[in-house]
Each structure stands twice: as structure tokens, then as C-alpha cells.
Predict the structure.
Amino acid sequence: MRLSTGRAGRAALAIGLLMLIGGGVAYATIPSSDGTISGCYDEGQGKLRLIDADTGEQCKKKETSISWKTAARLVCPTGTTLSTGVCIEDTSRSPALQSPAAHVCALDGRRLPSGGELRTFRRAPGITLSPLGEWTDDIADTNAGTTGFTIFIVTDAATATTDSFNSLAYRCVAGAGIG
């Protein structure tokens, strides 16, 4: 096979390079800057083609315009911070016994954090846990003492256990929404 080095060969090479570069530019703008992918669906042929809506490209008359976001992001209610996939309240609530604290969280459609969630959250910038520790929902059956179980608490320094007869600060956890 012989490659042409004449005028036609150079022109073909230039056109090929332009097509590669042009395709790269078009690809770079899909999805759009806000993460939206736009396309046109031809129901008669069962075909979907992607378009670059940012440059004004539109669907043909026989096509249906569709679009979707490429990725969802998790959002938290005001006063909470996203940590380990959940939203934990930024400030602790007034001390209470563990069971009533869990009940108050439940009334708000929330729950107490797990020990792992609270241990990770305490490392977030600007977060300081109560010096005596804060309640988690982690309970261990010790079959010892008057209660027979202990509840794990988390402080800024470590994880500890206590019985349920202490009043401690606590935070509630809300589920993250998709925004």
C-alpha cells in the first residue's frame, strides 16, 4: 500500500486532523457546564443522538428533546453538615438521657448518629464535641451491672462507654437529599 504525498493526500490528512480536533471540542462540551446532557430522540427510528445545547444545537422537528443531569449531589438541611453520607447537626443539643434524646431526634424525623459517624464528624473543621461526650445509637449488651448494657459515647479525644443514667449532649442525624 502506498501513501499519497501529493496535494490530495495532504488535504485528506488536514481534513482528518480537523475532524479529530473538532470532535474533541464537541465532546468537551457534552455534558454542558452545569452537568446536563441534552439529546434528541427519534421514536420512529428508535435512535438517540446527543447534542451540544450550549452552542444552540437543537432537535429536528420529528425528534423529541430530552435532557438529564450527569450526577446528583447530596445536600443537607440548614444547620447540618454532610459527613459519611448523612447530615449531622452542627451544634449539639442540651444534655439529656440517651433514650429521651433518641426520642426527640425521632420526633424531628431524625436519629442519633452511630459511633462511626460521630467519630468521623468530630474531625470536620470547626466541630467540637461536648467535653463529657455525646450520645450515639451504639448499644452493647454487657449483661453486667443494673442495666445490662452500655451505650457508646464519643468525645473529641476518644470513644468511651457509659450507662444510660447520665445526661449528655447529643446531635441528631438527618438523611441527605439529592439536589
Notes: Residues 1-30 form one domain. Helices lie at 7-28, 98-107, 115-121. The two ends are 57 Å apart (CA to CA).
